[in-house]
Amino acid sequence: MSLSSAFRFEFDNPNAKELRQAYWKQQRRIKKDELMEGRDQNVKEMSITNLIAKWRETLDETAAHRQLKRQNEEMIEEFCQSLKEMTAIRRAQLKKLLEEEQDLYEQEFNAKGLAFYKQRT
Asked: Which band of pLDDT confidence, cut at 50, 70 and 90, is reported for residue 120?
């Protein structure tokens, strides 16, 4: 509202100076309120920005923790697989050793003229 429109009816009023002072005080209060509203808006925006930043930091920590957990699970799985492979290798070597000993015993018995009894199925 402009000064001329605000005071067009009070022009002949002897208290016009006081009205102008009240008008200027009102304008200063309005500007101060707008300034405070802008600052409040700025604080809200900063609060939202800080909240997003905190969420991202937490997300990074959570992702790192999840990755570490996944790596641990993979290591455990690899360890279990290596144990199974070692067991299979040991069984194969033991089977080979037993077959070699069986062949050796058969050769010794054959040299003595003896034989193993093998049941045919």
From this structure: confident
Question: Taking the mean position of all CA atoms in its chain, how far away is CA 47?
Answer: 22
Say whether pLDDT at 9 is over 80.
no
In the numeric block, which tokens belong to residue 12? 């002949």
Nearest to 116 by CA among 99, 103, 11, 69: 103
Cβ atoms of 23 and 3 within 8 Å: the answer is yes
Distances (CA, A) of 48 to 38, 51, 68: 15, 5, 30
15 and 35 Cβ atoms separated by less than 8 Å = no
**Sequence-ordered alpha helix ranges (H) in 1-121:** 3-6, 16-112
